[in-house]
Amino acid sequence: MKAIGHSIMAAVLLSLIAAVAPSLSLAAELSCAYKNEGLSGSFGYTLSSDPQPDCIRQKLKIVLQQGGKTYTHLVNGSNILAESSWIDDLAQDGIQELVVVSGHVANSVKKSLDIYTIESGLLKHIPLPDVPDKPSYRGGDEFRSEGGKILRTYSVYRANDPDSSPSGGQRTLTYQFRNNELLLAAQKEHIQSVKPVEAVKVSKASRKVPKGTSLKITGIGVKADYIEIQADGEIENHRIMRLSNPWRLVVDIPDAQPVFSYKSVNINRHGVSTVRIGANKGFLRIVFDATIIPMPPETITPAENALRVSFYPVGRR
């Protein structure tokens, strides 16, 4: 399967949502089904919904076509009805994601949100995580996107509140889309104040590691606002992965080796309990184990012969 250019795929989703947004609401109110077709460059798309018995759920189908043939498609069965949608660059990487908000026919107060994105030439469905405090939640969701984040606001119910009469005010949850995963940002009361690391201009004194020579990782430093991966030369390349169950951040540094023998460092600051180090063939893996669930977003900043890793709540960017 040929790779799809990000700009073309973004244009497909942009055209798609422009045509779909009004139809979603109309379909949910009248027949709980809709169908839209369009073209963008060499790609055509069909976005449709098939109502199931009694109109209490639907099958949402998105099909991309090229040259009259199906390129890729996705079918998502659901017990909810799509009612609004928009696009946004949630990952802030220049690629647009499709956001669909749906309502429950049996309980119109509760809403759901789903993300549809492109991964390796395929359409991928990403659901919204559950609210963390279920006893206080009875619906009334309002969704919006802001600065690449999804904001979810709902009324908070106390234990003896009757339906439709919440007395606990409103709560807003912030979700960040990272590595094709929708993550709930840490609440302010659950994380210490950590400033984002300011960009550091790499000094000319940073040593370039000669080709064919392994970069030496000399230590893991804990500073006031960040954790630092220290080396004997400039860390020019690295790869990151965010993993859950348990939550952790993985940093892989190609052609690197540690000069120390210990396999872990106790941190107990910045939302990190331990940093683990493991040498692999062709790269060194450094794992940051989280003490906060979910793990706050990270920022990684190059410094002189180092990488600085900082964690902070989404809302503090």
Proportion of helical residues: under 10%
How many strands?
Answer: 22
What order do the helices and strands follow? HEEEEEEEEEEEEEEEEEEEEEE
**Low-confidence sequence ranges:** 1-31, 186-205
Report mean pLDDT, rounded to a whole number. 74
Question: Radius of gyration in whole Å, from Cα?
Answer: 23 Å
In DSSP terms (H or I, runs of 4 or more residues), the helix count works out at: 1
Could you give the order of strands across the largest sheet? 17-13-14-22-21
Question: Per the principal axes of the C-alpha atoms, what is the gross shape?
Answer: flat
Assess the beta-strand content as a share of residues.
Answer: over 45%
Q: What is the straight-line distance between the termini?
A: 38 Å
The biggest sheet, with number of strands, parallel, antiparallel or mixed sense and barrel status, is: 5 strands, mixed
What do you see in this structure?
The structure is a single chain. Helices cover 8% and strands 49% of the residues. The protein has 317 residues and is mainly β. It has a five-stranded mixed sheet, with no helix packed on it. The chain is flat. The longest helix is centred in the first third of the chain and has 25 residues. The N terminus is likely disordered. It contains one helix and 22 strands.
Supply the key terms:
317 residues; mainly beta; 5-stranded mixed β-sheet; 5-stranded antiparallel β-sheet; 49% strand; disordered N terminus
Which helices and strands appear, and what pairs or packs with what?
Blueprint: H1 6-30, E1 34-40, E2 43-51, E3 58-66, E4 69-78, E5 80-88, E6 97-104, E7 111-119, E8 122-127, E9 142-146, E10 149-155, E11 170-178, E12 181-184, E13 215-222, E14 227-231, E15 239-243, E16 248-254, E17 256-258, E18 264-269, E19 272-280, E20 283-290, E21 298-303, E22 306-311
